[in-house]
Amino acid sequence: MKFTNKKTTKRSNKALSLLFFQEPGERVLQRIQEYIEEHHFMQIQYFSKHSLPLTFKFAGDLSGFQQSFQQNPSHELLVVGTPPDGPVSHEILLTLKLSGAIIKLIPAEIDLLTGLLEISNIHDIPHIKLFPDKIGTTQKCLKKLLSIFISIPGIILTGLMLPLITLLIKTTSRGPVLYRQKRLGINARPFTLYKFRTMQADAEKDGPQLSGDHDTRITRTGKFLRYWHIDELPQFWNILKGDMALVGPRPERPFFAHFLSQKIPYYKVIYQQKPGLTSLGMIKYGYASNTEEMTDRLFYDIVYLNNPSLAMDARILLNTIRYLALKMFFSPSEKRKEKRQDELQTHTSSHDPIIRWVSFKNKING
């Protein structure tokens, strides 16, 4: 991927709004001003705690954004700085999500995201699209056909393995073979996810808990099923039903999704696509055993959402096969865990996801 800077000399009839959650640096203001002048937006306004040295309309503070935006919608919005946790930020981001506008998140300082995402730029300001352009109808249909084409053999394989898996589960623990759990799918719609049970039947009697590599609730058979991801095979049925896709952000339980959405205001962007059996986060980061790791893994979900294509899906599927094949010779999970711990030590003091993601700027190149 290369940085792109599309230029146009045509007069635009589109409106632009800017939301300054943080006061930007001088270079950012200069680049934004140049971007606006070059694209000739018809209507321009910005919202901030106070007026800034810009040549277009100051529309007031952030609390007035929603009402103003509903009366005069914008085609494109630039969100400068990280939205803080709070009801105003949550309502603003929900408004943005439902708007259908192009939303771009820009760091308050240019250097913050330099090298992090080579997706696009605004006069040398790298940015993340919070609500990226969706893939075309043709690619969407092809992705759906691919999911059906692969899920049917997957269901057949699961059926062939079912007697042996049932025997292994029943001989090591009491309880059902299949485990049903509520997860959140596209548009945060709840659905029932199916897995082979890998824990004791009463594993969450004290409430929802994340699981780590040395979780004592996991049965002997469960460790084997988890290592090879065999416990995920029943999700081919979820794919065939249309609840999931082959590739997409991994679905979370409502409890943890609510927690993350409170901690990370723009966590809900992952709901714009169906959750997947595998994901960029799974092959690049692996299982998350705490909320900090879940935050870090979200970075990869946003990278994926910024690159929705059949080519990206094919790359992730091939890397998933490679990941499983390598497990025959060594345990990548242990190596990944050590690497994760080293990386987390450098930025666990920060609660800002953008700052946390800076330490992962080179990981997607591997």
UniProtKB/TrEMBL annotation:
Q: Which organism is it from?
A: Marinilabilia salmonicolor
User: Where on the tree of life does the source sit, at the highest rank?
Assistant: Bacteria
What Pfam families does the record tag this protein with? Bac_transf
Q: Can you provide one Gene Ontology molecular function annotated for this UniProt record?
A: phosphotransferase activity, for other substituted phosphate groups
Q: List residues of the Bacterial sugar transferase domain.
A: 143-323
Q: Does the keyword Transferase apply?
A: yes
Which protein is depicted?
Lipopolysaccharide/colanic/teichoic acid biosynthesis glycosyltransferase
Give the protein family: Belongs to the bacterial sugar transferase family.
* Record has Membrane as a keyword: yes
Transmembrane ranges, per UniProt, are 145-169
What keywords is this UniProt entry annotated with? Membrane, Transferase, Transmembrane, Transmembrane helix
User: Do you know which PANTHER family this protein is assigned to?
Assistant: COLANIC BIOSYNTHESIS UDP-GLUCOSE LIPID CARRIER TRANSFERASE, UNDECAPRENYL-PHOSPHATE N-ACETYLGALACTOSAMINYL 1-PHOSPHATE TRANSFERASE-RELATED
